Amino acid sequence: MTKVMISDLATYRRMLHLLLNIHFLLSCLVNLSEANSTHLPRITFTDREKAFKRLRLPGHGTPIQILQEGQPDTVTAAGQRHLHSVDFQNLHKSPVERKVLWEVCTSDATSRACHYNITVLHKRNKANQLFLCGTDGKETSCCNMNISEPSSLCTPSEHMANIKTSMKEGEPSVLIESAGHADLYITHSGAQDSVGIHKFGEKRVRPANHGKEQQYVGLVLSRGREDPLQDKVYAFYKEKNTDLAIDSDMWLPFVAQVCMADHGGPKNYLQFVWTSQLNARLFCGDPDSRQHYSELVDVAALHADQWQDTRVYALFRNEWGMSAVCIYTIEDIDNIFTQSTFKGYGTGIPNDPRPGTCVVDSTKLPSDVLRIVHKNSEMEGRVLPLKNSGPLLVSHHHYTHICTDSFQNKRNQHTMLFLSLENGRVHKVVETNTTAFFIAEYRPFSHRAHILNMILHPSTRKLYVRTSSELVQLDVGSCAHYGDNCEECILARDPYCGWKDTHCTPHTPGTLQDVEKGNHTLCPKMPKNGKVSRHSSVRSGGEAAGGITLPLQSRYFLRCLVSSHHAEYTWHHNGNATACCPTEQQCLLLIDSMGPEQEGTYSFVMVEMGYTRTLAEYQLQLDSSAAGQASSPLAWVCLMAAVIMSLCC
Ligand SMILES: *[C@@H]1O[C@H](CO)[C@@H](O)[C@H](O)[C@H]1NC(C)=O
Ligand SMILES: *[C@@H]1O[C@H](CO)[C@@H](O)[C@H](O)[C@H]1NC(C)=O
Ligand SMILES: *[C@@H]1O[C@H](CO)[C@@H](O)[C@H](O)[C@H]1NC(C)=O
Ligand SMILES: *[C@@H]1O[C@H](CO)[C@@H](O)[C@H](O)[C@H]1NC(C)=O
Ligand SMILES: *[C@@H]1O[C@H](CO)[C@@H](O)[C@H](O)[C@H]1NC(C)=O
Ligand SMILES: *[C@@H]1O[C@H](CO)[C@@H](O)[C@H](O)[C@H]1NC(C)=O
Q1: Virtual CA dihedral for 598, 601, 607, 612, nearest 10 degrees?
Q2: Tens digits of per-residue pLDDT, 567-581?
Q3: If you measure from the C-alpha of residue 25 to the centroid of ligand 6, how many angstroms do you get, rounded to a whole number?
Q4: Is 248 in the pocket of ligand 5 (CB under 6 A)?
Q5: Check whether domain 485-522 has CATH 3.30.1680.10, yes or no
Q6: What tens digit of pLDDT does each residue of 134-151 get?
């Protein structure tokens, strides 16, 4: 009996040893291949850091909205028939749920029961006013709701109560309110006749039939021009490539323009159809190598005071599974539409007006202009990224959504990017001087999750992500977990955070930070043997202060948690240094067989950008009295389980 136990134990140990070795080897391989790539986020945030608040909420493809500015942590999400308002400051209170009462359904005595699914949700200019649309698959109705009133009556929006088409959920849309009336721009993706940009409101404008398959990812409003008549809406989409050559891309990325003043052509030609729509290819890639990205995934606009400077951050993918982000300015897009030649149409483009120019009355446009817009609306020129540069970032990760925020500190303006991954994680990236720095990875879900949509509330620095079952708030402005000393706060390079007195805190004019370089030498010099320094530079290994006593020939492992994935970690013992490639945010050191040579101090040291810090120290000593005794089999089993789990993750 005893013999069996021992042999089992020996097998366990052999297996364990093998596994540990594989584990170290694999983790080193994985990390080495990424060590110098820019897309390894420096810090990982998991549930341990308490950066997330979550609520179970059945999901749906309608974007979530932050509707009540007065209550910053309250988010409204549309369900199929209901609106759910969630107050993340009081999560113990259940969400306020309202079933939308469509007045078009209640007022009409002869009405059949309306079965509208909510497809569109927007905040209106007036406080506590919502705009929403619902569809029953055949027709659509849009209405306005006052959420300070107890009833959830939704009163028909002018000109938008009985739209004889269906609107799909998840399509990009913008609501434009101006003196007394509202216009809704919404896209229709797919391959049917109605594919394109639609405008509802006082004037109904449709896309021309073109028979192409298009998937829309975003609409960007461009106003504020010297001549407001020239204000436009831009639509970003990918189009199925009809060129079937073996090396051609499956999708092509495009931007389209339409004039906000456009209300269609005259009675006999393009009536109620866009007369100002022009399309242009986008290019994202490295102009020198032949690498490019053709599948547009998502866009996020960063509006500037000058309309020309508004930037569009576009997320792409290619057929090899690589992702890229390219930046376009509205000025560059506008230049293509106003200056490029028309594809398949040499010279002789009318110039008064040039096709695509916004005019006061589009029904009076000359027929040669209408014909060019109708037949040759694609530009010859392609829209290139900002300053003809390559992508801002390239990654082997599969990103699904992008959000942006502009952040102004003392010296510079920085752009923050939030990119969701297909497994439910989110990367936080800062753009500095046209390069991307990966600050952090958030892991709000312990399982694989599909993020349906994502929205950032810039002033509270909360990011909301929605899956089909949960709504999660990510506190992306939290600074405490970057470390408890100035150097690590600076190395984080997070524009939202800076060092002040004794803490890494949210940015204020007095905080220290160096987003461009992460140069920690700007930190105040601490006396090396001062109280603060000693307190903060050695974390206890969690073992008794007197050290760890081990029997002869026993195996043991030392474990230390790490935070930065950009640092190099080393175990030091008696002048020997062993490099460690952390996995799952920890470094293990295996003591193969305890003997007199293994006695002594083991220190665990990190080095990042010239900053060195001892994170832990362990004292190992030999227990001569209990020589030869094996350590508890249970402990080995637990360790093995841990190793197997981390291998699988
Ligand atoms: C990454 O590459 C740069 C230059 O290509 C080099 O200076 C740096 O030491 C490398 N870093 C690592 C961690 O290998
Ligand atoms: C409304 O939503 C439900 C659940 O998502 C779906 O089964 C149904 O087909 C939808 N109806 C319409 C008209 O889209
Ligand atoms: C919304 O309802 C509140 C409370 O009934 C009312 O005070 C407010 O004027 C309403 N707002 C609008 C725009 O009708
Ligand atoms: C930005 O980068 C360019 C080229 O990499 C460099 O010449 C320039 O000095 C940098 N600007 C700043 C403010 O660091
Ligand atoms: C950091 O700043 C110091 C002092 O300004 C300078 O000497 C050093 O070269 C800088 N280090 C890096 C990596 O830029
Ligand atoms: C340092 O490591 C080498 C090789 O692993 C070993 O032979 C040597 O004994 C170690 N020295 C000390 C002082 O532990």
Answers
A1: -160
A2: 999 999 999 999 998
A3: 20
A4: no
A5: yes
A6: 998 888 999 999 988 888
